[in-house]
Amino acid sequence: MTSLDSPALAATRPADGRSPAAVSRPRRRGRSGDGALVRYAFIAPAVLYLLLFYGYPIVKNVVMSFQAYDFSTFFNGRAPFVGLDNYASALSNPIFLKALANTGLFTVGSIIGQFIIGLGLSLYFRRHFPLSGVLRSLLLLPWLLPMIVSAAVWRWILEQDNGVLNRVLEGTGLISEPIGWLTSSDTALVAVIMVNIWLGIPFNVALLYSGLQAIPEELYEAGQLDGATGWKSFRHITLPLLRPVVSVVLLLGVIYTIKVLDLIIGLTGGGPANATQTLATRSYELSFLEFDFGQGAALSNVLILIALLFSVVYLRANARAAKNG
Fold it and tell me: Domain count of the chain?
């Protein structure tokens, strides 16, 4: 065994008497510090982007909701603090309850239609057949089009006098006179929901189909041996394994649907008689038509809170269901 005072160790020891390990330790700390700086340098652009394009608008919107921020503010620069007056005015307006109810109906109807049709198409395309890939690609077309373009096309299709839909229904004898799909308060919201379902189906199919592809075929083969075919196979194999994907689809679907603006503006503009007015369109109307930016910001904050509340409740319920098996 080599002694600590052997000539070999003494030759490698620094002049100040410190051990080699003590000399190399600061170097490791230096390299560690350089690595942290590199990591922060890579993260900094993303953080700066989020703060600039997401953080600042949200903070600005919250501040505006407590100010008398209107068209004159752009000229005199004055936006006095008014406390909760903007919230009180926006929530006490009779249109708010109508918009809130329409938002709920529009969101629930769209999500149910998109999910059921999307899941059915995903199960259908799971079976391999000629041109299935081409059909799946064509199915994504509504998702790729700008929403305002889709709204213009559907506005032409649903037009009362010369619309394609009424012409087809009249030609087949299903209706005797044209239906005002977008001009009647009884059918306008239903028509808007139908169009939004058409737009959202590709999103549901894309995610649900990818989730189905991740389920091993061996599980279905084992289930067939135990008599789990058809509905039993779907209930006991497909649905449990597809639950994480379903959670993402429903959560994102609600968040996207609850804030839909351009589709409704392009189809009905919130009319007729506020029949398709939602919280998003009402906030837009207050801000950019009535130029009451304070009330518009207040209503948009209410919409954000509703979306956050739903997200928290849904995620907790889903986590509890997953924990209980």
Answer: 2
Q: Please tell me the predicted confidence (pLDDT) of residue 1.
A: 46
Distance of CA 200 to the CA centre of its chain: 11
Amino acid at 253: G
Closest CA to 68 of 87, 84, 88, 82: 82
- pLDDT, position 16: 53
Q: Find out whether 223 and 231 touch, Cβ atoms under 8 Å.
A: no
Helix (H/G/I), strand (E/B), else coil: 70: strand
Phi-psi region of 13 (alpha: psi -120 to 50; beta: other; left: phi over 0): beta
pTM score: 0.82
Residue range of the domain that includes 189: 85-324
Burial bucket for residue 236 (CB in 10 Å: 0-12, 13-18, 19+): middle
In a domain, 2, yes or no: no
Distances in Å between the alpha carbon of 32 and those of 38, 249, 315? Answer: 10, 41, 38
46 plus 128 within the same structural domain: no
- Condensed to tens digits (0 to 9), the pLDDT of residues 275-317 reads 999 999 999 999 999 899 999 999 999 999 998 888 888 888 8
The stretches in the chain having pLDDT less than 50 are 1-4, 8-9, 22-24
Given the structure tokens 């969101």, which residue do they identify?
Answer: 107
**Same domain, yes or no: 63 and 171:** no
